[in-house]
Amino acid sequence: MNGWWKNAVGYQIYPRSFRDANHDGIGDLQGIIEKLPYLQSLGIDFIWLNPVYASPNVDNGYDISDYQDIHPDFGTMADFAELLEKAHAAGIKIIMDLVVNHTSDQHPWFLEAKKGKDNPYRDYYLWADATENKMPNAWQSFFGGSTWTYDENSGQAYFHVFAPEQPDLNWKNPQVREEICRMIRWWLDLGIDGFRLDAISHIQKEPWDFKISDNPWAPFMNVAGIEVYMQELKEIFDAYPIMTVGEASGVSSKKAVHWTKEDGYLNMIFELEHNVREGQPGAERLNLLGFKKVLSRWQKDLGSNGWNALYVENHDNPRIASILGDESPKSAKAIATMYMLLKGTPFIYQGQEIGMTNFAFESMEQVDAQDSHNLYRLLLDSGASPEEALRNVTHWTRDHSRTPLQWDGGMFGGFSELLPWMAVNSNTAQVNIFDQEKDEQSVLNHYKELIQLRKEQPFFADSAFELILKNHPQVFAYLRKTDTKQVLVLTNISRKPCRIDLPTRVANKNWRMLSTNAEQATVEKRIWMQPYDAWVFEAIG
Ligand code: TEU
Ligand code: CA
């Protein structure tokens, strides 16, 4: 079916932390198979799987050493085939992570390339003349430090926008693109249902002498020339009934229309703008006004021509219940209502559906993410005390989202019988799937209700979006509209009660409540909302 993803709800699985079926402390493919009935009961339509390929795990699977094999921690290709078949039987599609901006430095291509300037694989990567003390330019990588690593053997350096163990592929080389296309077809021919394209806006780079003015990432953010590569990818994707979602930071909401329109490169992209961290550690929260501004601009700019991917959590960010919420179930439900009814395809990150919270890291030993360790070292070097550095790093580390999924209140949260690779949050006795399945008022059941609402009413995919109460600092409120129907979403995303004054044209209509996370309420011109109240109304008459 063409465009099936417009009415679909996605669920992101971080396999290392989802479910450990063979009890070695690491989540695996059999664990996902075991929990398919859970995913089915949740009502989601597709899974996006973070990388499960062969990898030395410098960046937890985002450094791939063999694109066509499964990491032994997760299982085998046979396990993957079983997962695909059983997921499809359960009515669940599978989207794989496609990591083609870079490979691992242990990929056979790079091992060859490193052998010398005349190796046939040399041009699969990006090299430039350098000395030990002088890199080709001063560009900085996302994970801290230079984008260049010196190679003594050849007197050159190779380029990487992430870790040194993640050398960037040379997309200018047609042979590289051919290899990638072949690999993509191989997966699609296996019957998977699409891709999430990792860091895809970085595949094209400016010339090495490009001068950086303000944005340090400008030389590799959606750089001109990328259109050619994206068009080639699109032509492969077009031959399959799949969905594609690109992680495309640096593609503005204006430009995103071109990427996601009917004949755009991809079906949708993840924007990264709304994740921006406001303020320093201590000033814990995202500013709701800024958050609303970004999200509503994307709703408006993509309008009815482009398409949004909706998310509030992923494996790279802290838990939203600890950022926009106050960690209460009510706040987790309010956030769900607020974003799940926007226009686009909603993604739910594992654990979000039960309101999992940030982890109270007590030492750097509990932290796994490489970028967090780099930042820690940089902070110490710049004179911070170990306590300050730890506080700063753990304020926003991506590891908050990587603690094992909390299945029950037992030992290790029901994730494994062995000490897991990453600590289990101590609140697993209070926040877990087992208890929430039985509790009608749980966050989990609120998610189920919203998923059903979207599925029963294609209206949520088709209708227009209109922000109201734009300057209200606590409330995220909007209308969804067609000529014949209107839905009103009112959410107080704050710890304080507040008053709202609705526009007369909204207040004058008759409304029926569709969903609430608290008491029943009615629409009037002036309404008081309690902290984290979240209401959905449908216009009648
Ligand atoms: O993240 C990439 C990522 O966040 C950057 O592309 C982003 O554009 C940049 O930080 C600017 O804000 C993806 C994965 O989600 C992440 O887990 C990996 O570590 C990374 O790619 C490398 O593959
Ligand atoms: Ca395991």
Automatic annotation (TrEMBL):
Its EC number is 3.2.1.1. It catalyses: Endohydrolysis of (1->4)-alpha-D-glucosidic linkages in polysaccharides containing three or more (1->4)-alpha-linked D-glucose units. Coiled coil: none annotated. Residues 12-402 form the Glycosyl hydrolase family 13 catalytic domain. The keyword Hydrolase applies. Keywords: Carbohydrate metabolism, Glycosidase, Hydrolase. InterPro entries: Alpha_amylase, GH, GH13_cat_dom, Glyco_hydro_b, Malt_amylase-like_C, O16G_dom_2. Pfam families: Alpha-amylase, Malt_amylase_C. GO terms for molecular function: alpha-amylase activity; cation binding. One of its GO terms (biological process) is oligosaccharide catabolic process. Belongs to the glycosyl hydrolase 13 family. This is Alpha-amylase. It comes from Trichococcus ilyis. The lineage of its organism: Bacteria, Bacillati, Bacillota, Bacilli, Lactobacillales.
